[in-house]
Amino acid sequence: MLDRVAAPEQQPGPRRYASRAAFLRRRTPAALTALAAAWAATALAHLAHADLVLPALVVAATASLLRPGGGLLDRLVIAAGAVAGAALVGGLLFSVWPWGLHPVPVAGLAFTLLVAAAWALRRKPTLPTRVYGTDLAVAGAGLAAWLTTAWPTATRPLVERLGYFAGNDTGDRLRQFSLFDAVRQLDGYAFLDPGHTKQILVAGMATNYPNGAHFLYALADSFRMNGAAPGNGVAEAHRYYSLLLLGYGAFVLAAVWAARWVAGHRARGWRGALALSAIGAFLATGVMTTSVWYGFDSQVLGLFFTVLAIALLVRYPDRPVEQTVLVGLALIGVAFTYPLYAPALALGAAATMWAVRARLRRRLLPVAVTCAAVVPLVLVPIVVPRLAGDFNASSHLLLWGPIIRAPRRVLAAATAVFVLYLAVSRARRSPTQRLMGIQVAAAAVVALGLWVYQRSEIGESSYYLEKLLYAWLVTVLIGLGGAGALISRSRLPLPRAARDKADKLGTRGRWAARGTVAVAAALAGVLLAGGISFGKPEFRDNRPAPDNTWGKVWADGLIVSPAQSELMAMQRRKLLGNGKFTMVVLRASRTAWQNALVTMQAAVLNHQLGTLEKYVADMPLVASEKQDARKALDPMYYVAQNWDENLEVYSRTSPVPLQIVSFDPVVGVRLVRAAAQNPCHCVKIVQIGGGKS
């Protein structure tokens, strides 16, 4: 009797061995076999030029060793975030070891660590097979986001994609790509070796801007290229662009998954389909998509890690040590990619750990050790670059920058619905939902704190407040995954004929009826979020017309560089990415700043943006009246004020080889005359669309 009673109370765990030697005899050979097989698979994939499959295998192997998450998609999303966070930490090693970002040693090290973890934890690799109906909403949102943002370039020839690479007039995408290029060329973090990036990057970019997103994209590009050099700048730019589009899709998928993860059982059925589809539609087609063409590449991956960290925090601490490691990796991801979001997460994490302190007491020591290891790694990408550069955070937070304002009414309404959801539904009794309230409060407190600081210093809010408001909005949306619970739980009435038919079909008929209702609810959620455009797409005053979405006007090609035709003409003449130092004069109808932007685009495709900045700074300059130093966001700004006149000066005095591409016949003639006076005769004028070469 005693044995029969005691048996069910035994806790599952690793098999006990009589001695340590017995454990080694049983487990070590299997681990060594697995390690040899992993390295063999890595080598074979490289020989077959299929290195791109290795990251997927690493994610799958990681998922098989994790235990949080009862569904297959849950486990894979958590594993993907963990692998990405670990890769950012590993980048500190990859930047100094002799193999750089080559796929074989990187993947081999990852597999080695996974085998060692399985051996040390005595875990058998297993993957859950459970698939939920709402997996379709989660995966569908990520796919829709990727399709929406990729559509303009996916449906156009390669030469036409150049106008979408830097579709807005800020130059941010060009600087982002140059940082990716620097990491790719260095095979490691630029902030660890800023001296070797002067030709590629503008001054201070290596140390003053977070390298994490660009490192992850560079690592992915190395696997895609099977360890080969990045090669031609134009092809490299296209690969980078395709990666950042995948990054946006991954962010949306992670955000909708986080909303479902936080909601738990409240995201089931048609109510869950309604809420999740509305969240996904807003993120896939709404104002958040502007981050793609505004060049906010680091912000997108920062939000990806942010939503993962929030999701893991609110379902904490089922497995305290393991979940602390996962949250730590997500926090590391935020610190390396977009540290602006780190304070809110740190505040939310501290409040969460205090709220669940009673449940952490049994594992307090290992949790404390894990936190002690995570904190320095979070500080590395924040502190080390600042020691090497001249970054001033207090003044930087006051800067102006081009950005679409976060929709205040949407933010206020979403926050109000979330508060209502917690106040009047059964969710208020859920510890998970209360912890979600802590995350929303932390995001709001940090954003409002920056608003107060900006108002006190410069009398108005500016660029970085909008970034925090977007993070606040995404956090609230995650909390609304279970808001369908606000709808009455009474059964939806079905027509008698439909009920009779479902009864005749039995279980299959009932499932079909539920699926039909869920699909209808999902479509209603898409409409509720404004995810569908009606009528002809229009884009006026930098806004979509009524009944249009941001995603639709982008997908229809209405947001594109004004100099797209000139970029296409240069590419057809092989004047881009040819290694020749180039400046460009557009047609008279173009603005001066567009001349500078196309010149910058030619420079980044030649890996020469830093060289261009230094060249411009050292050359004679024709000054312009009423220049506003506050708008000098780029070293090309002052030159662009009197572009033609400055290029004439450069043509006469340039001591280094210079190629000037002119689309304006009148200016082209003047430049030819000026170049003839150059003492070293090292300036070449290339006329396109009229004039002589």
UniProtKB/TrEMBL annotation:
Keywords: Membrane, Transmembrane, Transmembrane helix
Transmembrane segments: 29-46, 76-97, 103-121, 240-263, 269-288, 300-317, 329-352, 364-384, 404-423, 435-454, 469-490, 511-534
Superkingdom per UniProt: Bacteria
Keyword Chloroplast: no
Annotated protein name in UniProt: Uncharacterized protein
Organism: Yinghuangia aomiensis
Lineage: Bacteria, Bacillati, Actinomycetota, Actinomycetes, Kitasatosporales
